[in-house]
Amino acid sequence: MKVSLDVDRKHEETSVTIHCNEMDDSINDILAFLNERKSEFIIGRNGEQQQHILKPNHVHYFHTEGETVIATTSDGAFKVKEKLYELEETLPSTKFIRLSKSVIANLHEISYFEPSFNGTLAVHFKSGGKEYASRHYVGRMKEVLKMNRRDN
């Protein structure tokens, strides 16, 4: 891989351009690192008064309860102001994946999963929590986890 760096005060903002003939794991790692810089922390509330700084890597999953988005960590559940689609755009796609319309999960916090009814998957987290991956998102989840890879 060839790397070029152009440092000059005339540049108004930092921009990154990657030229490649195909996407591979190294390119995905670079993109994940760059995307991770967008969301270094999230503010969450566990009541009316207390605001907590949450690091995305410490969040097990985000889910909705009505109109509210909840971040679940090992320290508890925190209300966050961001909508799920906003979190999905800013969180690194190599670490977080959409499980359903109402859940985004941290892949590093998933303990195991098991088939459920109607083609869904029950996803169990290290924290003991459980959410369901809808059929619409199961294919993407399998792709990310490389579950459908066959070793001969």
Automatic annotation (TrEMBL):
Pfam families: LytTR (PF04397). Residues 43-147 form the HTH LytTR-type domain. One of its GO terms (molecular function) is phosphorelay response regulator activity. Keywords: Cytoplasm, DNA-binding, Transcription, Transcription regulation. It comes from the Bacteria. PANTHER family: HTH LYTTR-TYPE DOMAIN-CONTAINING PROTEIN (PTHR37299:SF2), TRANSCRIPTIONAL REGULATOR-RELATED (PTHR37299). This is LytTR family transcriptional regulator. The lineage of its organism: Bacteria, Bacillati, Bacillota, Bacilli, Bacillales.
